[in-house]
Amino acid sequence: MAGKKVLIVYAHQEPRSFNGSLKDVAVAELSRQGCTVAVSDLYAMDFEPRATRKDITGALSSPEFFSYGVEAYEACKKRSLTSDIIAEQKKVQEADLVMFQGKLAILSITTGGTADMYCKTGVSGDFRYFLWPLQHGTLHFCGFKVLAPHISFAPEFASEEERKGMVASWAQRLKTIWNEEPIPCSPPWYFGQ
Amino acid sequence: MAGKKVLIVYAHQEPRSFNGSLKDVAVAELSRQGCTVAVSDLYAMDFEPRATRKDITGALSSPEFFSYGVEAYEACKKRSLTSDIIAEQKKVQEADLVMFQGKLAILSITTGGTADMYCKTGVSGDFRYFLWPLQHGTLHFCGFKVLAPHISFAPEFASEEERKGMVASWAQRLKTIWNEEPIPCSPPWYFGQ
């Protein structure tokens, strides 16, 4: 559609790959339609994937206790994030359509939400849903036997006392961890019958 | 259990964080049991997360068409991967239990399998299952409206002709992409009723 802006976030090392073809054909077809197409070619850009304090220029809000979320939020407001991040944010803001393409997908999963939010009817769905790719698709696939997950829900919204309790309950579980049986790592465990 | 070896893959920037506490208590409890505990503290190690040709030392098998999978496989056999990767592989091999811990999880998802493998009764489960964290947990969560996915299954097992067909079908879809309605990005779309 003429006039639309598209951003393709592209992650593959070899331009002549199948992924390269899919990206090229997208650029060609969308340009033909009159779109403006930007490509963030992450490997070619040598894009920095680590989330560290180097992402923040200037003084930290709380240098003695580094919280990436807090610092990035403050730096975002003050426009003091590094230039490579600001450039990508600008592309996303301007785009009408963003495509993520690549054989490798990098996901950032937070358990910042409470346990209520991670039940079947909760806003985030059952917590087992998001475990599927990691537990089944990666660990089980690679031959690991998988123990039941240990999830500490929403520590940042808990009291100091509750946090201590969560740490203690982890310590408690570890005492008998060698006696545990692996979960049956198949669809019914994750999604029911 | 005395004599067991444990590897904790730990990813958090701040040692005094809640994640730091969970890691510390695991080290303490498991050491108390007589286990040998190794910690891969990825941020402290400044671990390189990008999968590039720098991971392979010496000559490439196919320098004119770089395939990370092929080169890494060959380099693994010849022990010519970079020393940081070999060191981590050794830790995983030696460990009786591996823990992944961190507020950030990095997942690697491949669509190397065929469409048959990604149905409800297939070995990999319905392909929608692994889309949940990315589409719902990341994109939907961040406010994107999500279009139906475009999955090219198993291009490496397809013929040249079939690959061209897959590229063409992607190009075809793009022609009318602006007319598409977003999917209803909620649990029923992913897991049925």
Instruction: Tell me roughly what share of residues is in helical segments of chain A.
Output: 25-40%
Proportion of residues in extended strands of chain A: 5-15%
Give the overall average pLDDT of chain A.
Answer: 81
Secondary-structure element order of chain A, as H and E?
A: EHEHHEHHH
The oligomeric state of the chains shown is: homodimer
How would the global form of chain A be characterised? extended
Structural class of chain A: alpha/beta
Per DSSP, the total helix count of chain A is: 6
Q: Can you tell me the residue ranges of chain A where pLDDT is under 50 for at least 5 consecutive residues?
A: 101-110
The largest pleated sheet of chain A is described as: 3 strands, parallel
- Backbone CA Rg of chain A: 21 Å
Task: State the largest interface.
Answer: A-B, 66 and 66 residues
Strand order of the largest sheet of chain A: 2-1-3
Number of strands of chain A: 3
Distance between the termini of chain A: 43 Å
Organism (chains A, B): Phocoena sinus (Vaquita)
Protein name (chains A, B): N-ribosyldihydronicotinamide:quinone dehydrogenase 2
InterPro entries (chains A, B): Flavodoxin_fold, Flavoprotein-like_sf, NAD(P)H_dehydrogenase_qn
Keywords (chains A, B): Oxidoreductase
